Amino acid sequence: MPDWSRGLHRYRFRSVWLLNAPPAVVYAVLERAETYPRWWPQVREVALLDATSGTARFRSLLPYDLRVVVSERVRDPGAGVLEMEMRGDLAGWARWTVVPGAGGTRAVFEQDVEVCKPLLRRFALLGRPLFLANHALMMRAGRRGLVAWLARG
User: Fold this and answer.
1) Can you tell me the distance from the alpha carbon of 15 to that of 96, in angstroms, rounded to the nearest whole number?
2) Residue 91: in which H helix or E strand, if any?
3) Of all residues in the chain, what percent carry a pLDDT higher than 90?
4) Nearest alpha carbon to residue 152 among 31, 24, 39, 32
């Protein structure tokens, strides 16, 4: 596959969430992936396979699901890092870095993935702006959900 074509299917994301809770509390929530569907509306399902891997299904505004198998690469509470490898409809990695921030916590989400789902690959060029907007909406909803979850105490 030519390099330009691979670039059509690759996405790099970075989101920064400022949260009014201690880093240890935020980290504890983020490391429990099985609870994500309770506070993040677009994370529809998470099923643990064992202590370090599971499956997840995501769906945002656009009418398609993404299914991945997720495997833990790094879990370092001292550094505030959670990193996972993904394969399935997306292949690559995602990482949370949780550190003290103004009045609470700065949680940085980074993701570097290639879309593998055939339907999305077919619409890579025309669909890219929609896919980016869809991801942005998902991240905003995730932040709002986490803020509400943390407020519950």
Assistant:
1) 10
2) strand 90-101
3) 86
4) 39
The better pLDDT of the pair 1, 24 is held by 24
Residue labelled with tokens 């997840």: 56
Q: Give the model's pLDDT for residue 153.
A: 77
DSSP lists the bridge partners of residue 87 as: 69
> How far is Cα 105 from Cα 23, in angstroms, rounded to an integer?
5
Please give the pLDDT value at position 2: 54
First to last CA, the chain: 50
- Give the whole-angstrom CA distance, residue 21 versus residue 143: 13
Q: Between residues 81 and 61, which one has the greater pLDDT? A: 81
Could you write out the DSSP letters of every residue in 3-54? HHHHHHTEEEEEEEEEESS-HHHHHHHHT-GGGHHHH-TTEEEEEEEETTEE
Cβ pair 112, 14 in contact under 8 A: no
